[in-house]
Amino acid sequence: MVRGMVQSDINGCVAILIAAYNCEPWNNNWTETSAERYLNEFFDSNHFIGYVAVDGDRLVGAVFAHRRTWWTNDEVYIDEIFIKPDAQGKGFGTELLSRIEDYSRSEKLGGVTLLTNRFLPAAGFYKEKGYSEAGHVVFMYKEIWR
User: Fold this and answer.
1) E strand map for 32-137
2) Of 21, 52, 77, 103, which is most buried, counting CB atoms within 10 Å of its CB?
3) Which contacts qualify for 117-124: CB closer than 8 Å, 24 or more apart?
């Protein structure tokens, strides 16, 4: 089941983000403090859109997104989407994406955009769901301090 996110879901989302991203293949180093601050920045932002996936009485996934202005038509931008490792491959990610896409349709928005690492399995998941690489966009990054 997927439902709208509420503030009290953040702690559960923090635990899921850490479980999903601090292991293979991502190997991040999220702490409870950094993950909570990160997710609250999205939750507290203007035009926030968020949903959680629930299996029984436990949270197993979430999507953090926001509506953003674009010159052709407003769109939904997915900031984060993650599923607990033991719940991956069970349709929760598909349900979360579907809910975001339904929101985009109901609001008559231009579409849904997101960033992911092309070299990790998530890219294949999005391609299976009909997303394609935008060849005209390049994600640029410069490390300043390490």
Assistant:
1) 48-55, 58-68, 75-83, 112-114
2) 52
3) 120/25, 120/26, 121/25
In the chain, how many domains are there?
1
Q: Which residues pair with 63 in a beta bridge?
A: 51, 81
CA nearest 101: which of 75, 71, 73? Answer: 75
CATH label of the domain that carries residue 12: 3.40.630.30
pLDDT (tens digit, 9 = 90+) per residue, 61-93? 999 999 999 999 999 999 999 999 999 999 999
- pLDDT of amino acid 23: 94
Token couple for 33? 């403090």
Six token digits for residue 53:
């996936």
The two three-digit tokens of residue 61, written as one number: 């996934």
Is 139 a member of any domain?
A: no
Q: Are 14 and 84 in contact (CB under 8 A)?
A: no
Cα 68 to Cα 2: distance, rounded to the nearest angstrom? 23
- Per cent of the chain over pLDDT 90 is 79
In a domain, 135, yes or no: no
